[in-house]
């Protein structure tokens, strides 16, 4: 079978394709949103906004829990800020292992379903549930179903 294109015209087509690919890459880089950059690890003393997608961290279930989670440690770089404000998504089958609290802590369920163990009692939790665990309380949380269990976790940082 004979090709209808000769070698010089194939080379021109290849050169054009490479030029188009390079131009597209430069254009994409020029219009890429600012949030694509890695978050700064330097302390910050200003007021600022963070996007969850910029700070997401894949982690195993905390407190020797099971499975995979994604943590979103908002304002971790905020200098002099004495609160931890974290979103955590427990992916299917994941858990926060049972542990005894050394501080007061709040979980707020944004989405999904789970089973909470709080001081020996088990109950189902879902969107809109707020859970207060006091210093000395024992608790753990397990994701149920096909959807991620997404919570907000808030507590005071220990004094330096």
UniProtKB/TrEMBL annotation:
Task: Tell me where on the tree of life, at the top rank, the source sits.
Answer: Bacteria
The signal sequence is: 1-36
* Signal is among the record's keywords: yes
Q: Which SUPFAM superfamilies match?
A: RmlC-like cupins (SSF51182)
GO MF annotation terms: metal ion binding
> Domain Cupin type-2, which positions?
90-155
State the protein's name: Cupin domain protein
